[in-house]
Design goal:
alpha+beta, seven-stranded mixed β-sheet, elongated
Length: 544
Amino acid sequence: MVAIQHLLGGGNPPPSFASSQLSAAASAVSAASPSPVISLLSWNVLLPNSVDGWWTYKMYNPPLSPEQRYMAAWQYRQDLIQQRISTTQPNIVCLQEVAPDSFEDDFRFLTEDLGYDGVALFNKGRFRPATFWKTSELELVAPPVHKDRTLLTAFRPIVTKEGEEKDGSTATTRNLYVLNCHLQAGAQAPRRVRQIHEGMRAIMTLARKLKEPNPQENLPILVCGDFNGGQECGAVHYLEQGLIDDTFVEDGKPVTNSSKVLPLATPMIDVMAAVQRINGDSDDPEQEKQRSPSSSPPPTMVVSELISQLVDSSGENNDKTAYEEPCFSSKSLERLERIYTRFATGTTDNNSDEKVMTTENVEQWLIEINGQVGRGSEFREAVELMTRNLNTEQDEDGNNNEQHTEPKESAEKPTKVPLDAILTLEDFQAIYTKELRQGKFWGIAHDLAVMKEPLSTEAGNFEARYDRLYCSAKNAISPVAVMDFLCSEPCPNAAEPSDHLPIAAAFCLMPEDKRQDTQSKKSKKKKNKKQLIKNGDNVQKVGN
């Protein structure tokens, strides 16, 4: 058994040594082993904003000044991503949250500069996973399989046997299955469980199609990506325990109505937790003795702590998670009311003392938070509520009947704020409550800050391990090195282009285990012999 090496990749600040040691460690193991060694990096890169993703700058906290806006530009972020991948040099790159409209241009550096000429892009959605590989190192043995937010690729590593043939002919080894996941975010725990279960079943379906021997017990599998949940996540529990049923509760509700069983003989291995790390770092021999080994992987998401400042956790809300119908705290509502009061200059016919936001006021607000009118979920919600208010006023004046009190559905997206319409304080708070319940804490924090009601910067960080990397049984594939990427500041920032940190590891693809197959043949032969004895003269010969 090869000891698993623990390596440190890029960080903030970056380490003094290059993160290319992942490929160096893989090469060292490969030189000492007849089996191929494969390395993989997984990373939610945060939606590229070259064409889409205009709102990316809102992810930076505290908000960027005009002089700092270059950090949020795609060219700057793209350079950071390229540097990280080029120094890590994995065989396989699994990305999440790529944009289909600009995909080829966004990641041309991978295909043209870094040599990842094999590409599989998920076939639908605005936020997609994509898998890259080098065709000189890996052969795709079947078309990619697209399920619900999971992308399955199957590879056969190409191993050149030096000296065997003068023409440099190659020999191939067993297949490797890679499931690249970007599970659904928010209060969607049942869907996340269905997504990972469906992805694992897709692996077994493909394995049987490729006539793999004993796929339940001896199949090399890597599952990676953004699970949008930590250890409390049902999808994580499913992989690590091998099953999940209706007793598992996430966000206050069961994640499934029936048992779901992992289609493997043993649970998946949490690769990043499979290595011993040393807590602390010191050259002092006495302090060195006090350092203890730990299996706790570092967080892959490091962002400003916002939930405790925004969400009401008093009374009956005390035990709820941030996704169980969260409500604003009283202080947050007071902030929103002060902001509304500063913008509102209009009045209603019923009460001249009550100020409301007019069309012009709403446009001023949208420009302040989104840079322009016509984009963002705040704009869409405001248009819907103001249209409803306008139709209600017309209905009260007798100009319209009841069927027009709801805004008409249209295939065309709105581009302007309705004229002569109002937005009430309740509407304004409802818009941000919807943002809250969609998990857009970062967007709310940005808007509050630019509207001069900033949250505290002293609340610390929210840290979680949402990004995961799993491998199947060690008799099929065994981790030989893992690489941590560390950051202590809220991400994204000047050194980190995403709100997620990457994870990476190297694996030894073990020789195919024939024992189970041989045992299966023995059992079949024994069964046939019993059948022969039972049937007597009715069966003259079984097999050859």
